[in-house]
From TrEMBL:
PANTHER family: HD PHOSPHOHYDROLASE FAMILY PROTEIN-RELATED (PTHR21174:SF0), PTHR21174
Protein name in the entry: Uncharacterized protein
Domain of life of the native organism: Eukaryota
InterPro entries: HD_phosphohydro
Length: 144
């Protein structure tokens, strides 16, 4: 997760990150504060119509921001596996059973939506590998 403020137990990381940007921008001459803050807040949902409609692509900044944040899903299998191990460490406060159940639920949501990536570029380059990585991790988690 690439939020400035990220708490694995919280659900308001995007809002907290947006507040940090507001604070930073109040001390600068950066004139795009509202635009950036809105993007951060909107990206908190991690899903748009372009993710849910097989025939459409997203092409605005929000779609690219979400795709950049999810890009690791389409990494090569070894890098993906290493990242998954890091995610497990990040959630070390959960016992194995609870982690497995929550992780499976999240991964199965990715498999169910028509598009993991909203933008044409990311979808063409990473969608297939992301689905393979996620399917492999689901199988491993089910075996544990």
């Amino acid at each position: 997760m690439d939020d400035l403020e990220y708490d694995v137990n919280g659900h308001d990381s995007a809002e907290k990150s947006a507040q940090r940007v507001r604070e930073f921008c109040s001390e600068t001459t950066f004139d795009q504060q509202n635009y950036v803050v809105d993007l951060i807040v909107q990206s908190g949902s991690n899903c748009t119509d372009a993710h849910l409609n097989k025939e459409s692509y997203g092409s605005d900044d929000l779609h690219y921001l979400i795709d950049f944040d999810s890009g690791f899903l389409g990494d090569d299998p070894d890098t993906y596996r290493s990242n998954s191990e890091s995610i497990r460490k990040e959630y070390s406060h959960l016992n194995d059973k609870d982690y497995r159940e929550q992780r499976l639920k999240l991964l199965q949501l990715f498999i169910q939506i028509p598009n993991i990536f909203a933008t044409k570029e990311f979808r063409e380059k990473y969608e297939k590998q992301a689905r393979e990585n996620i399917a492999t991790e689901i199988e491993l988690l089910k075996e544990e």
